[in-house]
Amino acid sequence: MSINAKTGPNGAGSNLRRSTDSLIRHSRSHFDAAHFHGLMALYARPSTGRAVVLPHEGERRVVDFVRCSYLGLDNHPKIIDGAIEALVKYGALHWSCARTRLNFAIIGELELALSELFDARVIAFSTVLAANMSALPLIASGHLTGGAKPVIVFDRLAHATLAYHKGTLAGETKVETIEHNDIEALETLCKKHPAVAYICDGVYSMGGCVKLEQLRLLQDRYGLFLYIDDAHGISIFGDNGEGYARSQIGGSLGDRTIIAASLGKGFGASGGLLMLGNDHQEQLFRRFAVAHAFSASLNVAAIGAALASQALHRTPELQNLQLELQSRIALFDCLVPTEQRGSSLPIRTVEIGDELRAIAAARTLLNRGFYTSAIFFPTVRKGRAGLRICPTAGHSEGDITAIGEAIVAVLEEFEQAGVGTNADFKR
Amino acid sequence: MSINAKTGPNGAGSNLRRSTDSLIRHSRSHFDAAHFHGLMALYARPSTGRAVVLPHEGERRVVDFVRCSYLGLDNHPKIIDGAIEALVKYGALHWSCARTRLNFAIIGELELALSELFDARVIAFSTVLAANMSALPLIASGHLTGGAKPVIVFDRLAHATLAYHKGTLAGETKVETIEHNDIEALETLCKKHPAVAYICDGVYSMGGCVKLEQLRLLQDRYGLFLYIDDAHGISIFGDNGEGYARSQIGGSLGDRTIIAASLGKGFGASGGLLMLGNDHQEQLFRRFAVAHAFSASLNVAAIGAALASQALHRTPELQNLQLELQSRIALFDCLVPTEQRGSSLPIRTVEIGDELRAIAAARTLLNRGFYTSAIFFPTVRKGRAGLRICPTAGHSEGDITAIGEAIVAVLEEFEQAGVGTNADFKR
């Protein structure tokens, strides 16, 4: 029987406590309410445009604003054809072995094409979750920071699939969490420690974005290592759709920046990827990334779809879709005041406050034909519940106008009924 | 700036150190050698049967023994057709949203069908990695063990995608590691603590299996919670292909056993799944599983393939393939003595000892037309390197005979050349 008993690098008194128990106890009733009101775990079939059909609600057709397919590419015929053609050509969907062993040649083609498109060394993963899980321990090892184990600093709002690993990383190096976008706190840590790595999102899933310019200054000054999960930023920014983060970094990525991104979301296929800066990083990942060595590759359908999508990214259609997206966002902003109004990022949140009121608002909208996300703890802070809406290039102007008016109407009805909300819906 | 400074449940002096740095330093040269000799990260196209074509070696055709498609289903026409049909029907590959929100109706159909097939409550995941990452914190929370946070006990050989999370779990509950299949050590912990959860594989990826009967006795006696990653056992055992673990548990799974499995490997599609025992567990997972709430679903091609495969599992073809597999394993065992000889599990390892000799053996076999895994630290202990071979139902008797003879020939040549190995290859 073996028990580890050494003191970790976070010191005898430090700990990065995760409390799944607490999270469950504090949010369960709201999840139950959301489920009860038919807002969670919907099972649907695609309809035209952004609409879906709900078999369990009598085949009712609703317009979806939950999906993050920001350019509306998730039902693009060329991308689906790409998936089908790859399956027909290969006669296989999946090879059960590690990427460190045997790969479909087509995934090599994909990574080469994406590397060229995004001017980085790209490795594809089954999901962004797998990419993040692979990257963080390699950062902790020090092998990406010249042999010195960095202090790993998480932005408080870093995605759940990043924050999850704090405890594991704490067994290897020092881990800190700072307030969202707190550049000052980060600089203090950079002054104090010879090697620091900052873990953040590019575009945050509840709105907002990374302060990349200021981070790059810290990088120049202190050698700060940046790991940016830009899953929500891919395709919607950049001449090649390289994403929110990559498009702000001219030239080579360099040896101190790694960007994760999605092959779903704006990209329109399925899976995840890492953009690496040099050969040393690529070799390290291809040998030691946990998902590369111990988990499954992206399947052939996803690879084929991604190949078709990256081809589309090289045509004028990309820029047209990016502009369409901006146009839909701007139209939404004319109709519904939100904290994100005026931002070019495609996520909008309407804060309502009380969790049950947020759920009621989402249900009312669903009754009126619009599926939105009711968001509450742990996704947002307690008492700051609301709605999350993703306008996309795949929505028509009519869709946007309709939901905008519906949101304002619902909030007005709440007010008239004496149901207070935090929402500022006066245009 | 915030820094956690509380003492965790593993005590002020305890720590579950992960050392990616050490792992890299101790194995890098061997990975480099294996890469140099063209044994790692091969890119290939499918050929007939279990063969693949290597474009980078002049389109040479080799028979693959690395893949874990134990029933040879990964290129079954019905399964590929299932993938294609689902894509055509849905006109979409992937919806970018959490499973807690919007799902393709077809994944609901799949989970229902698998639940019936395996007599459990099944939730599908993009990969087994995602399933494992989702399950472990929920076990740690105590919500699966009647409110009492269990001591989580890892088998030392538990899969890397389980062991990875020890540090994260240690922030929530006590974590221990015991020697492989050390039932006595586990019982000691069961006597000492009111709630214990044991984390192990069903079929281990380097050979061997769980001692399920003895674990079930501990379960009856002490309420031991079992989490079994049976990715390598699925489809190859059980009347319905329910796998090595599930097929040994009669009737309902109950409330103290969760089994993870693959939708790849023996099953022939792509993805992962969890077999849960009751409604309480299922609700918990569908609300709070990290991959369910924060990561992507299995894509439509994988769902369609899995639906076709589960249909095949209900036909006599399943049993025929299971018997073919046993026949190929038995034939291999006639030719090559291994530690696993006589076992019904499909993984065989030939221990050679020295890492560079193992790499040389694998390269020689590849020259002769057989792709095997050169295995070395961290996959196996240092100085215990060797070859891993997966005979499958998709191999012909000729394939098995040829590789068996080739392995023995290579080891004999090594001996004659005065290159010692640990291998006992005298039949």
TrEMBL record, chains A, B:
Entry keyword annotation includes Iron-sulfur: no
One of the protein's GO biological processes: biotin biosynthetic process
GO molecular function: 8-amino-7-oxononanoate synthase activity; pyridoxal phosphate binding; transaminase activity
Highest taxon listed in the record's lineage: Bacteria
InterPro entries reported in the protein's UniProt record: Aminotransferase_I/II_large, AON_synthase_class-II, PyrdxlP-dep_Trfase, PyrdxlP-dep_Trfase_major, PyrdxlP-dep_Trfase_small
Positions of the Aminotransferase class I/classII large domain: 151-406
Pfam families: Aminotran_1_2 (PF00155)
Keywords linked to the UniProt accession: Aminotransferase, Pyridoxal phosphate, Transferase
Cofactors that this protein relies on: pyridoxal 5'-phosphate
Gene3D superfamilies noted in UniProt: Aspartate Aminotransferase, domain 1, Type I PLP-dependent aspartate aminotransferase-like (Major domain)
NCBIfam families: PRK07505.1 (NF005697)
Cited PANTHER family: 8-AMINO-7-OXONONANOATE SYNTHASE (PTHR13693:SF100), CLASS II AMINOTRANSFERASE/8-AMINO-7-OXONONANOATE SYNTHASE (PTHR13693)
UniProt protein name: Aminotransferase class I/II-fold pyridoxal phosphate-dependent enzyme
Species this chain originates from: Ensifer oleiphilus
